[in-house]
Structures are given as structure tokens and as C-alpha cells.
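Posted in: Structural Biology > Protein-Ligand Complexes

Title: Requesting predicted complex, manganese (II) ion in pocket

I'd be grateful if someone could produce the C-alpha cells for the following input. Sequence and ligand are given below.
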Amino acid sequence: MSSLQEIAARLKSANNILLTTHIQPDGDAIGSLLGLGYALRQLGRNVTLFSADPVPKRFCFLTGAELIVSGELPGADFDCVVTLDCSDQDRVAPVWEQIKERIIINIDHHPTNNLFGRINYVDEKASATGEIVYELLSVLEAPLDPAVAAALYVAISTDTGSFKYENTTARTHRVIAHLLEAGASPREITPRVFDLRSRTAVCVLREALNSLEFNADGKVAWMALTEKEIKLCGAGDEDLDGIVNYAKNIQGVDVGLFFREKADKTVKVGLRSHNADVGKVAQALGGGGHARAAGCSLDMKLADARKTVLAAVEQEVYQ
Ligand SMILES: [Mn+2]
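-- Reply #1 --
Done. Output follows.
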């Protein structure tokens, strides 16, 4: 494993740097990208920010979000590529062929990281990649201005579920304290990132709640949406984010499930739990994730997917 000092030295000597992150970027992906991007620009480095998928709307208010290039990788000759929050090559699949020969600096916090970079810095104890970027900036002696602070605040607050998940540590709060001192404003950020919902998202949530059912003596709650229902609401991926938590957070429920029929007729399943190891269940069904947050895709009819997953989950719950 490399050190942040080594990474800082590389970044200071590189001429043309590409910063990129994973497909379907989340708050940690975008926040880390912007935070490191600005700081390197302030240090006079030539930096390109790239995300294969567009920046989700709720992060577009962040200063510099419009500078993130998405879609096609601009054909410049990068001598250094930094991947942020990516556990393996698949997470940067759309550009992997174009970047694989470059010096890749892999900065991440996923325990499953396969160290695909030439230089790897993976800190499993960090709540978010944004927390590592914060440390890298202090090694780089980059100034923390309000824009950098806001970007890193978004990275850390989203990956910790607003400081509620078990990855939240004392170090997380110390970093956040510095970000607030540097000008990050929860009052500006929270409504945009966490609270605001599009009408489409609320419409599709209503449909999902309408489908709510319980199994295993109320220990399992599940919701399901057909492709037709999703289409009628005009909902996209972003609108379906977090719906599964409404099932999980009902009193007496240990496991919440959300089944979603895709256009290709496969069924995407989100699994969340308080105690049961749903990661194990998802893995047995060809998916993956963490013990209390996992997912899988099943190539079967919605009703069959429901039966299959419910049977596996019930076995886990009654263990
Ligand atoms: Mn992350």
C-alpha cells in the first residue's frame, strides 16, 4: 500500500491529471471528485474531471459541478489518472480501455477493493473516500476553501447516511468540524441533498407503499414495482433511491426488500436489514454488498423473484 505522501508527490509532478469516479456516481463520488479537483487546480495543476454518467441533479448546485465532463472521455494525453471511490475496474468500465495503461492512483475505502491501480491507497476505516481526500489535501497543503469544504461535506454526509451509519467515527466528526470551519454550510446542503424530492420520486414512492406487504411474522417487509408502474410515473433510477428504507424502518421489521422490474424484464432487488446478513442472501443469488445493505438482479418473472428472495430471506431471519 502506498502512502498519501507518495500520492501527493505524484500529483505535484504530473502534467496532465485525470480525476474520475464510478458509474452511477453517488455523493461520495461527486464530492470527492470536486474536492480533489478544485484543490489541485488551486495548486496550479492541469486537471480534467470526468464521470461516465451525468452528475445526479441533487449535486449540481455544488460549485464546479458543471466542469465535470460526462459521456465520452476527452482525448487528452493524461500522464496520471486518479480513480476515486472505485473498488474495481468494473466501476470505471466505460473508460477502462483508455486509462488502463496510465499511472492509475486508486483511492478508495471499500474493503473489497482489488488494488487495480499502479498506486493504491485503500483505507477501510474511512467513512467515505471524501474523508481520505480531506487527508490528502492536508498532505498537499492545499487550502480548504468553502467550495472544497462543501464538496467534501457532501461526500462524507451522504456515505454516512447523515452520520447515522456505523462507519461514522470520531475522526469523521473531527474532519466535519474542520469542513464547517472552512465554510461548508449544512443549511445550504441538507435540503438539496437529503430532503428535496421530485414530484416523480414521491409519485413512485406512493406506488411502492401501495404494494407493501409483510412476511415472516412481520419481520420482513417488501415492496414491488412493475416496469409499467415505474414508466407511468416517469421515474428514473434516481427517483427509486432509498425507497427500500421505508420497508426496513417499520417497527418490528428486520429486513426490508424492494423489487423492481427492469425494462429487460430482469428484476433488481434491494435488501436492507437491521440484523440479518442480507449480504449472504444476495451473494447466494448472484449479487453482493454488505451484511446490512445488499442487492442482486434476477433473470425471472417478478412473482418468481419475490418467492425466491423471500424464501432465502426467511431462512436467514429464522436462523
Ligand atoms: Mn464511498
